[in-house]
Write a structure and sequence with these properties.
about 950 residues; mainly alpha; Rossmann fold; 47 helices; 10 strands; about 60% helix
Length: about 950
């Protein structure tokens, strides 16, 4: 079950007919479009929303008549410009009215995307899918994807966040700061708030990237106050009375509006003005009494009862205002149904604003509703719970469970709130709204939570995902009655996840597999998490047939459910399982399917395709298809920058190994250094740092840098007596997963040190374990290194036996680089095999790979300065100084928004420079441009 978004929050309020035009402020807003941020910061009642509404209309947009029931997708207004003109003027505007429930990073992001999708319905689709992943990326990574999608569109757009003061969650502020730091050139952000948010306002101001409108700017001038009272409200006052009223309200628009309502029908207006004095707080109290008491009892009753609502519709107000005991004064009297009442309030200018084009949804002015609620609690506190309860019931009947929960909690109906939280738990967690879910549960009595096993399960999941204490998770699980086999399975599955978090992978697998068999297809959240866990734990424990089945099922069920990101991840992991078994054709097919799934209808790769592309690149490298390997790897690296930055580390390792195959050692070193930096910056498990160090040591060994390789071995305590039992420590996943690969690098070092006996003492137990576990790919490599060690001992016959075993396993998969990267010793041994007639066709391919390796001329390690523009070689048209600057930043791996920020220009300008660079270098992309520039000595 999914929970619909309230599209009334995306409604752009039209300018009111009683508007006082404010051209001086509109001009400032227009001028601010050249900045990153426009901040409108002032207390309640200073016309922030009204000003933005007038500004949008003044921009010349045609606002179509759009339906607006909350569950109706068409409720979202799509604005299109009705006039052209200045390129700074946006062609699209997106609006989001925030409230207290948006203090969840996932929910906030979902609403921002929903607002942007009123401009382009494809924006952010991949981000929304990622939010439903068992392990969603960090908010910053999701915002990165969104930023790049916005930057790739051609339209200039404005995103307006209204009532931003209601956001208090620091992760959301951090996300907005990140957005501002990397804002695409075609997006302008507007924030309307009662108080300054914790954003880098001073920095933006200093850089000229901020436009500010504050309380002093928004106050009505004397002329505007005169126009408001005389022209708009039709109140005849003397010039002195107008000046006095404007002075006493200090241009505060809400104060003037309340005064105008209070003066309707009065005879002694001068006397009213004379009595109207004091602080703003006093004015509020005075005016609410004046405005409220002058209304009929039926209107007073309606205002008080509906003040508990954030948004109002006729049916919702009918539900809230009916059947209360005892009745409020005036019940049963008055102007008719709630819909009629809402329309009356709107026409009477009683601080009610429409939220759609059909007068179905409204809200009170923020200041006015605060005053109404205060009065309700003073006069009828006993009725507040009943009002919230009826609102909760209406929202539940209409499918809005989040709002139903909020009202149930406000009503103090904790039994009802507990039931609703359990009902919506799965959908909430599927959207990654963990903060919202945990906040709900925190307001429920623990004894009530314990009576609902499913709620306990989901609470345990949320605690685990959010980094809560494992002891707290276990305490929650102990309260669950496991007499039901299904519930016992859910508990076992969650305990399996705890074991996996602790690195006890074999225990996790043993617990998860039987649990998965008991779960029905209806438990979508549980099944997806179960299959994800089972698949990964099974891989760690070596049951590859079961792992393949699990990943295939996960991919299938995820595609059926529309979870593209999970399906792509499952197919990528499936390919990796095939590679462990040396099934290269099957692996290539799985990678290909993952990439196809992650390609949209326009043929554009989604960022989630990055890992599959880099995996396919490494496979092509193994098969010696180096051009294809480079293409897929570079594309994967580029996309990974938009997805999970740490994933790019894998691509740079592959890139280094491709450069190694080309004997381009400097570029190999540079790529490996980039991988190291990424691991140091983003890796949280420690495996990335260890893995990069291992591959770097292997690269050093291939270059003959034995001192550096030996230092690495000592740091990893590999210079001590080999402990082969480490290969069996399956409940220490970090050691179990990486140690075997480190032993292979150690064996290479020992062979190069002319210590083949020691190398064989490492390889023999490794071969035995890998053979037992069915790790065909590692068996091939271990046998190959064993052959090299035996050759170093002078035992050629035994070396050929080991090599023959290795080749027989490697030939079906077409492995080439594994052998070719070992250099001249392997070439000599392969030549020996030709005399014995072993696999002649395959060996010919291997020897051809050696022959094709023509060492490239090595460049000096120092940075080569860019030549003067006039001296650029082999270019029909030289690069400008600015283009050279952009080229150097492209080579450094910066994205277009990052380059634009560094050079203080628009992203579109960087795209233009890049297009010119590509044309002058006769290439089609950034990586080809960087390679070509290096060949020409421009970098």
């Amino acid at each position: 079950m999914t929970t619909p978004l309230l599209t009334t929050k995306l409604y752009i309020p039209p300018p009111r007919p009683d508007l006082v035009s404010r051209p001086r402020l509109i001009a400032r807003l227009n001028a601010g479009l050249g900045c990153k941020l426009t901040l409108i910061s002032a207390p309640a009642g200073f016309g922030k929303t009204t000003l933005l509404s007038e500004w949008i209309a003044d921009l010349g947009f045609r606002i179509p008549d759009v339906g607006s029931e909350p569950k109706d997708k068409s409720a979202v207004r799509i604005l299109k410009p009705s006039k052209g003109g200045d390129s700074k003027i946006p062609n699209r505007v997106a609006w989001l009215s925030l409230d207290e429930s948006d203090n969840d990073p996932a929910r906030f992001l979902a609403y921002v995307i929903a607002a942007l999708q009123t401009i382009d319905e494809d924006l952010g689709k991949g981000v929304l899918d990622a939010l439903q992943s068992p392990q969603p990326p960090a908010t910053e990574e999701l915002v990165t994807v969104l930023i790049n999608e916005i930057g790739a569109t051609s339209d200039a757009m404005v995103l307006i966040l209204d009532d931003y003061h209601l956001v208090t969650a620091q992760p959301i502020h951090d996300a907005v700061v990140f957005l501002l730091d990397h804002l695409p050139g075609n997006l302008h952000l507007v924030i309307a708030t009662r108080s300054d948010p914790p954003l880098p306002i001073a920095r933006l101001r200093a850089r000229g990237q901020l436009t500010e409108l504050r309380q002093s700017d928004l106050r009505f001038t004397p002329d505007e106050a005169t126009e408001f009272l005389k022209q708009v409200k039709k109140i005849e006052l003397s010039a002195n009375d107008v000046a006095a009223l404007a002075s006493r309200t200090e241009g505060w628009i809400a104060g003037l509006q309340m005064a105008a309502v209070s003066m309707q029908g009065r005879r002694d207006l001068s006397g009213f003005v004379a009595a109207f004095a004091g602080s703003q707080h006093y004015i509020l109290d005075y005016l609410i009494e004046e405005v409220f008491q002058r209304q009929p009892e039926s209107v007073q009753s309606f205002l008080l009862r509906t003040s508990i609502l954030e948004r109002m519709s006729g049916p919702l107000c009918d539900a809230v205002t009916s059947l209360l005991t005892p009745p409020l004064p005036g019940e049963g009297q008055g102007v008719g149904s709630s819909q009629t009442m809402l329309e009356y309030l709107d026409h009477a200018n009683l601080f009610v604003f429409p939220l759609d084009d059909h007068q179905r949804w409204y809200r009170y002015h923020r200041l006015f509703v605060d005053l109404l609620r205060k009065r309700l609690y003073q006069v009828h506190p006993d009725l507040v719970p009943a009002l919230h309860c009826r609102a909760s019931q209406w929202y539940e009947r209409n499918g809005y469970l989040a709002e139903a929960i909020d009202h149930a909690l406000s009503a103090g109906d904790l039994e009802r709130a507990t039931r609703l939280v359990e009902q919506i738990a799965e959908a909430t967690l599927m959207r990654s709204e963990i903060v919202t879910f945990l906040n709900w549960v925190a307001q429920l009595p623990d004894d009530l939570v314990r009576t609902r096993p499913d709620l306990c399960i989901f609470h345990g999941w949320a605690l685990l995902i959010s980094g809560g204490s494992l002891d707290v998770v276990e305490s929650r699980l102990k309260s669950i009655d496991t007499s039901s086999s299904v519930m016992a399975s859910k508990v076992a599955l969650l305990r399996a996840y705890v074991a996996a978090f602790q690195g006890r992978m074999s225990t996790a697998a043993e617990m998860a597999r039987p649990a998965l068999e008991q779960l029905s297809g209806d438990d979508l959240f549980m099944r997806i998490n179960a299959v994800w866990l089972v698949s990964n734990t099974i891989v760690a424990t070596g049951d590859f047939d079961s792992a393949k089945q699990a990943f295939e099922e996960l991919a299938r069920t995820s595609l059926q459910a529309g979870h593209v990101m999970i399906a792509v991840g499952a197919l990528t992991h499936l390919a990796e399982v095939h590679l462990r078994l040396a099934q290269t054709l099957e692996a290539k097919a799985a990678y290909g399917k993952a990439i196809d799934v992650a390609t949209d209808a326009q043929g554009q790769r989604l960022p989630v395709a990055s890992e599959a592309l880099m995996g396919l690149g490494d496979l092509c490298r193994e098969l010696n298809e180096l051009d294809a390997a480079l293409h897929y790897t570079l594309e994967g690296i580029e996309l990974s920058r938009l997805w999970r930055s740490v994933n790019a580390m894998i691509g740079y390792i592959t890139l280094a190994r491709i450069r190694q195959a080309q004997e381009n050692w400097q570029d190999a070193d540079e790529a490996m250094e980039t991988a190291r930096q990424l691991a140091a910056q983003y890796d949280t498990t420690g495996m990335g740092v260890i893995g990069v160090a291992m591959y770097r040591a292997q690269l050093w060994a291939a270059q003959g840098n034995l001192d550096a390789t030996l230092r690495w071995a000592k740091e990893r305590r590999l210079d001590q007596e080999i402990d082969s039992t480490e290969l069996d420590r399956k409940d220490d996943y970090l050691s179990f997963h990486l140690r075997k690969y480190e032993y292979l690098v150690l064996a290479r070092l020992l062979i190069l040190q002319n210590r083949p006996d020691k190398a064989l003492s490492v390889l023999e137990p490794l071969f035995s374990r890998m053979e037992q576990q069915g790790r065909t790919r590692l068996v091939i490599e271990t046998l190959m290194l064993k052959a090299l060690a035996l050759q170093a001992q002078g035992k050629i016959a035994l070396a050929l036996v080991a090599l023959e075993q290795s080749l027989s396993l490697a030939e079906p998969g077409g492995y080439i680089r594994m052998f070719a990267d070992e250099g001249p010793p392997m070439a000599r041994l392969l030549h020996e095999t030709t005399a014995h007639g072993l696999a002649p066709t395959y060996i010919a391919k291997l020897l051809a790979a050696f022959a094709a390796k023509a060492p490239k001329e090595q460049r000096a390690p120092e940075t080569v300065p860019s030549p003067p523009v006039s001296a650029q070689p082999s270019l029909v048209e030289p690069l400008s100084e600015r283009e050279l600057e952009v080229l150097r930043l492209l080579a450094a791996g910066l994205s277009n928004p990052e380059i634009a920020q560094q050079l203080y220009v628009a992203v579109s300008t960087i795209r233009s420079h890049a297009k010119s660079i590509y044309g002058k270098l006769d290439v089609h992309g950034r990586w080809e441009a960087v390679q070509r520039a290096r060949e020409l000595g421009l970098l």
